[in-house]
Design goal:
about 190 residues, Rossmann fold
Length: about 190
């Protein structure tokens, strides 16, 4: 059973009202929940909220950890604020509207425990999000991203980002349907 079902979220009915299929898979939501429970972060940023599936997973884990705050940002309103509110997570998850660069104005450099990237999937968008994440992430913090298998530009951006950063990051790829990458800043 997916953690989303456990929370009472009917995947097909409650999430997916936009008619677009840009959500993280159930298994990825479960992974994000478990990862968040495990590392117990205090400050997290999500770049690319869409309808809020991953924000709900991370936010619920933070609630279960009894600590932390998640800022999630998207350019458009896909109903994410309502979806997050419906799950009782508005006190933990703050929905921001705007470009990813907005996070640089709101959050301190080196202050985040992890960033989850699932925003624009063009090469330029992916590399921008990695650069923003690098500025905001603390030493030994994590940058996670979605669609490294599904979207060639995401894979290319991650590899190019790391190409001149030898010894600065550890990299793990998780072979899910769309693929996840995990970078740990050293």
């Amino acid at each position: 059973m997916s953690i989303l079902t456990k929370w009472g979220v009917n995947w097909e009915r409650d999430i997916g009202k936009s008619g677009l299929d840009w959500r993280v898979e159930r298994e990825t939501a479960d992974f994000l929940y478990g990862f968040t429970r495990m590392i117990k972060p205090l400050r997290v940023l999500e770049i690319g909220t869409f309808e809020g599936t991953s924000a709900i997973a991370i936010g619920q884990a933070m609630k279960d950890n009894a600590r932390g705050k998640l800022w999630t940002i998207d350019m458009k309103d896909y109903g994410q604020k309502k979806n997050i509110s419906d799950q009782g997570l508005s006190d933990i998850v703050e929905c921001l509207m705007g470009k990813a660069e907005t996070a640089l104005k709101l959050l301190d450099s080196g202050s985040l425990d992890f960033v989850f990237i699932d925003d624009g999937h063009a090469y330029e968008d992916a590399i921008r999000d990695l650069i923003i994440s690098e500025i905001l992430i603390r030493k030994f913090g994590y940058i996670l991203g979605h669609d490294i298998f599904e979207v060639p530009d995401v894979n290319k951006a991650v590899n190019n980002f790391l190409s001149n950063k030898t010894g600065q990051y550890e990299k793990i790829i998780i072979a899910s349907y769309a693929g996840l990458f995990i970078l740990r800043k050293l």
